Amino acid sequence: MRGRSDGGQKKRLIASLCVVAIFLCFLYVYYGSSSHGAAALEYGSRSLRKLGSSYLGGDDDTDGNQYESSINFGQDRGDVVPKTFPVCDDRHSELIPCLDRHLIYQMRLKLDLSVMEHYERHCPPPERRYNCLIPPPPGYKIPIKWPQSRDEVWKANIPHTHLAHEKSDQNWMVVKGEKIVFPGGGTHFHYGADKYIASIANMLNFSHNNLNNEGRIRTVLDVGCGVASFGAYLLSSDIIAMSLAPNDVHQNQIQFALERGIPAYLGVLGTKRLPYPSRSFELAHCSRCRIDWLQRDGILLLELDRLLRPGGYFAYSSPEAYAQDEEDLRIWREMSALVGRMCWRIAAKRNQTVIWQKPLTNDCYMEREHGTKPPLCRSDDDPDAVWGVNMEACITPYSDHNQKAKGSGLAPWPARLTSPPLRLADFGYSSEMFEKDTETWRHRVESYWDLLSPKIEADTLRNLMDMKANLGSFAAALRSKNVWVMNVVPEDGPNTLKVIYDRGLIGTTHNWCEAFSTYPRTYDLLHAWNVFSDIERKGCSGEDLLLEMDRILRPSGFVIIRDKQPVIDFIKKYLSALHWEAVATADADSDSDNEGDVVFIVHKKLWLTSESLRNSE
């Protein structure tokens, strides 16, 4: 009996070992094969970074060695340089890492949906970052050139037609064969943004029904912009709008705007300040933007107040402005009372649109009764601090400069582009320093275009980004070109973005250790002046930055890197892996601030996955 029992135990033991062995073989086959597939990477998994490390020939035991080697530009990287990067799964072709709903679900973030926290930035930690190239969608084509792109784009580039069906009665967009056409309509202006813009100018008695008011209105914030037709039709009046919308149920509206060549940014009026300094815009606009302006003591309307210049306008087209039902009348009464306490006045009201105007000075604020709400902001509040800063339900009073000038004190456009603004003094900059910076960058941009000229035509470039804009002189030097520039100012440096807005340009604040708030394939040219050197000092990954730049750069787009030689050497080793090619290298002009800089220009090749090629045949 004992012998038979031992034999049975042995048989059970052997059977168990066989089951375990089969299970381990299955895991090896499944995960081993998926790790070698070009389109089988799982975003949001720690193994993604690990795979990147293994793929680069680094140490599989830790992410740290691979990550640290990315930031030391001056040392020999040896065998850690990749021959190629994996390609992300096709479902990540529109990935926005810091606005990714899947990440929110995976990390189980507890967010307040009622105040739009789920539409604000939530970036993946290092172990959850992707380490792969974002593929274009099947059938992707080089975008249609500006100005034709204002009115039509390739359907294959943004294969989403739900807005065309959902907004079919409002002329947002229409599908026609291989293209998506934009008739210029919107929720409130079915018959065209151009007529609607002219009507607003007429309401304000501006000459020739031109909203730019002889150059006095230049920068506009369009909240809940849809596909940005309002901003598109402002451009012909020499007005530039920051078209703003979240990645919400109308998911691809900002993607359509940028594909059209219209300035736009993914953002939401939620709990954080918008990434723009105080007194940046002459006009804010909301057309049926479905925002509850009365919530939380009017905090969202007070955020617009912070952003408007002295005497700035808020054009509001909504049922509350004209409807006679009980609920709309209630909202209108409460909103009127709120803006009255904010010292706004009605500048014009006609049909479905009301236009309020902000006061020119602090006088009205000082005359309010004690205890009136909303209160003035605390004296120690910095209205220009925006990166990750919570909104507050308070009124931002004007500086002494604005109070004395009884307005912004800015020259009309285009003179303001080259006129030293008053807020230069906030940084200790003189007019002479401003003028020298403007002239320096004029020469540098001329040099850039000489280097680019063999590769580009007059209409090759449209959407440009200056990744470290300083005073905005790179963008200022491009005024004669048919381009627009997103000027980016680092969140931890001098907040010169207010000078950029005072020049009549637009931009945003950002930290390049994180992903930018835009869709993939949205910019034609990136200008990186000492950006890599800056993130090295922060201890962030140069490799991550290269992958992020590749994500937001359009196929056939260009990158201009102006940095130290070790940085250029570092980037050159990644060209093949990124499908980039060198266009030109040149010694930078010598100046005391940036001695030893080198200019390196690269071109991103158009590449397609095998699935995309099959679909395009």
UniProtKB/TrEMBL annotation:
Tagged with keyword Oxidoreductase: no
EC numbers for this chain: 2.1.1.-
Class of the enzyme per the UniProt entry, highest EC level: transferase
Taxonomic superkingdom: Eukaryota
Transmembrane segments: 12-31
Lipid bilayer topology: Single-pass membrane protein; Single-pass type II membrane protein
Signal peptide as annotated in the record: none
Subcellular location: Endomembrane system; Membrane
Protein name: Methyltransferase
Organism of origin: Hibiscus sabdariffa
